[in-house]
Amino acid sequence: MLDDLLSGWEAPHAQPQVGVGGLDPLSPLSELPHPIIHKARESFGEDPQRDNHVGRIRSSTRFTLLEIKSGQWRGGVWIDPGTGVCWLVAAGLAKGGHKDHDDFYERVKRADQSGEIDRWLPTDEDRRQLRREAAARLLSDWELNIQRLVLEALRVVSESGTTAFILPHPTDPEKRFGECTLTVAQVHEPDFKREETVVEIDLANEFRTSNLG
Fold first, then answer.
1. What is the pLDDT of residues 88-110, one digit of tens each?
2. Burial level of 36, CB count in 10 A (0-12/13-18/19+)?
3. What is the spatial distance between Cα 69 and Cα 97, in angstroms, rounded to a whole number?
4. Among residues of the chain, what percentage have pLDDT more than 70?
5. 29-122 classified as CATH 3.30.2310
6. Which DSSP state fits 139?
7. Where are the beta strands (DSSP E) in 28-72?
């Protein structure tokens, strides 16, 4: 893919770097600003019944490669039968009525005949990067959710009072990670007023010594 997407970027310096799926785990390859990447993200989602692709690329005989289109750009998506993850493994331009040597379909045909196409499939490093990106997204979503809960609590006790809320588990909605109690008090002294804020966090026993805790 590093060689396939040398042009067509919608923002400068957005190309993926060698050894990294995106710019970092929080800007994964699937969100980089390129039309064929946008199309892949739009075409495949959590529900396979709603996938929207052109069909199978017939010249790919060694494994199923699904075709997507965006303008002159073409892409090939392979779905991992073990995990269901959709991988954009090849991209290129449609050229010369599909007779040009650099035409996307011609490249797929040559790669399939030579066996080179097998090297297009995800490597162990690709899979490790996907796990890093998934973990980074999960953690950032969890932290943002806690920030929203804190904001709601602050609105409740903006003047004074006590409120509490449950700290959710990052992956299991049935689990309780802990509880946070927030108390705000207005203290009036001669010629001086101040606000005291007390935050109490009570984590569930199993999480008190964890990294997330």
1. 999 999 987 767 888 999 999 99
2. buried
3. 15
4. 92
5. yes
6. H
7. 55-56, 66-70
Tell me whether strands 192-203 and 86-93 are parallel, antiparallel or unpaired: unpaired
Residues 10-19 have a mean pLDDT of: 57
pLDDT at 9 (0 to 100): 79
Arithmetic mean of pLDDT, 164-185? 94
Q: What are phi and psi of 62, to 5 degrees?
A: -80, -25
**Whole-angstrom Cα distance, residue 149 to residue 126?**
35
Q: Which of 65, 116, 127, 72 is nearest to 94 (CA)?
A: 72
- pLDDT at residue number 110: 95
CA distance 62 to 48: 22
CB atoms < 10 A from the CB of 73, how many? 22
- C-alpha–C-alpha distance, residues 3 and 16, integer Å: 10
**Is there a contact between 91 and 104 (Cβ–Cβ < 8 Å)?**
yes
Confidence of residue 16 (pLDDT cuts 50, 70, 90): low
Break the chain into its structural domains and give their ranges: 29-122, 148-207
d(CA 84, CA 46): 9
Q: Which residue has the tokens 């289109």?
A: 69
